[in-house]
Structure formats: C-alpha cells, structure tokens
Amino acid sequence: MINVAFFDTKDYDKLSFLKYGERHDMQFRFIETKLNEDTAELARGADAVCVFVNDTVNAAVIDKLYEYGVKLIALRSAGYNNVDLSAAYGKIHVVHVPAYSPYAVAEHAMALLLTSVRRIHKAYNRTREFNFSLNGLTGFDLHGKTAGVIGTGKIGRIFIDICRGFGMNVVAYDRFPAKDSGIHYVSLDELFEQSDIISLHCPLTDETHHMIDAAAIDRMKKGVVIINTSRGALIDAEALLEGIKARKVGAACLDVYEEEADIFFEDHSGHILNDDLLSRLISMPNVIVTSHQAFLTEEALNNIAETTVNNISSYFTNDGICDNELCYRCDSIEHCKKDRKERCF
Ligand code: NAI
Q: 232 in ligand 1 pocket by Cβ < 6 Å?
C-alpha cells in the first residue's frame, strides 16, 4: 500500500483522485491545509506527498520531508516554480503532470477576453436587476486586432489557434521559438508595441519574473488588454495598477496574482481582505479576476488525477523510473526525458 499525504485538498480533488487511486494500491490522506514548514509534520508516515501550485516546497520543507522518509513529491500541476528542485536533488524525487488540458487554460483566457471586451460581467449583473440599459457597455471587435502571445508552448499555441478563428492577427514571442510552426515571431519589445491584446503563456522563471513591469507597459499601445492565465509574478501588479490608473492599460484579465497563495481557492467573503493591491485591482471596472480557475474543467481534473496516480504508481513499482520526473541536472524536461533510461539519481 502506497501512502500519500495529499495537501491543500479541495472537494473536487477527492472525487477524481479516489476514482483513479482505487485502481492502484494507493491510500490518500486528504489534508486541507497547504504544505509549508509548519505543516510538513503532517506528512510523517507517508511514502509520497501530493501538492498543488500554492504549496511551499522550499529547501526547509524538503529537508523535513526527507527526514520523515518521504520519497516522492508528486505535483498535481504542470508548473513547478514552487518546488526547489536543486534542494530536492539527491534526496526526494519530484514528478509533475506535464499536460492535462491545455484547451482548458487557453479557452479560459479567451473567455476572460470576451467577457472583458464585451462587458458581459456588467451586463449579467444589470439584467439580474432588470436594468436593460446599454449605456457604458460598448465593446470592440476582436476581428482584425493584433494578439501578442508570450510563450508558444502547448497552451500558447492553442490560444493562437483560437485567436486566428476570430480573425485576429497574431504575433508571438518565445525564448525558444518553434521552427516551422507558421507562428510570426517578433522581439518582446515589438510585441509590446504592436499588440492590442497581450496574453501570457510562459513559465515563471528568474528571467520572466515581472516581465510585464512599468517599462514594458510604457511600450504598449494605449488601451492594451493584458491577460494572465500563467503565473501571477509574471506581472508587477503595482505597475499594472498604475498603468490602469493612467488609462494606458485598457483592461486586465487575471486568473493568477503574485500574492495569491493565501487568498485564492478559499472563500474570504465576509472577511476583510488584507491585500490592498488586489482589492484595488478588483475594484477597477476594467479588471476581471478569477481565482486560478483556468485549469478547472472535468477533462483536466480527470487527466490530472490519472497522470498523478500513474506517476506515483510507476515510481514505486517501476524501479523509480517515471517519464514525468523533473530533474535538476537537466536543462529542460524534454532533454531529461530523452536521455533518461534510469532514475534521475
Ligand atoms: P509549455 O512548457 O508547453 O510552454 C511554455 C512556453 O514558454 C515554451 O514554448 C517555452 O519555450 C516558453 N518560454 C520559456 N521561457 C520563456 C521566456 N523567458 N520567455 C518567453 N517564453 C518562454 O507550458 P504550457 O503547458 O503551455 O503552460 C504555460 C504556463 O501556463 C505554465 O508554465 C503555467 O505557469 C501556466 N498554467 C496555468 C494554469 C492555470 O490554471 N491558470 C494551468 C496550467 C498551466
């Protein structure tokens, strides 16, 4: 029996993980709290921990897990910026879910964009109160506009296809442009200067941290719409707020926020929100915030649970070999996978 301490559990996690877990000899201990230095103790006796995007898996937490005999950290997410892979190397193996539904995230990005530019969020509230006035609801056509897509991996490319379906022009920037993809790549500065809409689909790294800052916003078109369904810290939220107040940024659609860890995924209604920046952003008529919801489709939840359970199972039953292991030694996951015919360490 493989014992898994499952941190930051939500009701929707239980349904899908119990379904796939029972096919393997796997027992989940569902824990509602997030993993951090204070709660790592709850992993005692577990063979593996299963964590999500806002669990803290830094060097101190990894050392504690290692001391308790935990052998595997199974991320039920694609992004892994919350895990210190260098600290884990040589101690605990780390696996993730490289793709579960890129469509879910790309479609959510477009849902946010359409909601914003056609003022659906405002119309919905108005008609519920029998206010059928159209004043202030004027939007703009997406057709013919230029979308700038940063990061042309799985999600970015689907978003590009969706934009093309709307008759938009697409320019893109990627640190590693895809050859023969038919994507029109430009420099980051050119993307900022040409785009009516900018959508972020690259990972959070030291290099991409605050890639949308005051200087970047300065280069953008007046009225630009910025969409972030990737990671909060790609955007300097203070600079975004200033850009909105200066009427430079026309709208922002945010599924992620730099300081979301203690706020998103929980019901804070009826409480006073201690984050003034987020409160101010939410108060803006041209800002839409969803609570890291882009992944949340039935298809994605099933894929996340199935892949995570398979990752854990193959680690414990297949000599520790798992295709979805993240390895600190390698430059990229792809490189690592190609070369690996054995355990990472
Ligand atoms: P991917 O790995 O397929 O694509 C990422 C792309 O970003 C790659 O083409 C890569 O070359 C590019 N990239 C890397 N460094 C870059 C840089 N410095 N500048 C520009 N581009 C760079 O990843 P995928 O599946 O498309 O996911 C993208 C991001 O979406 C993830 O990193 C994650 O943070 C976020 N995400 C958000 C979810 C949500 O619910 N809001 C759910 C799933 C992912």
A: no
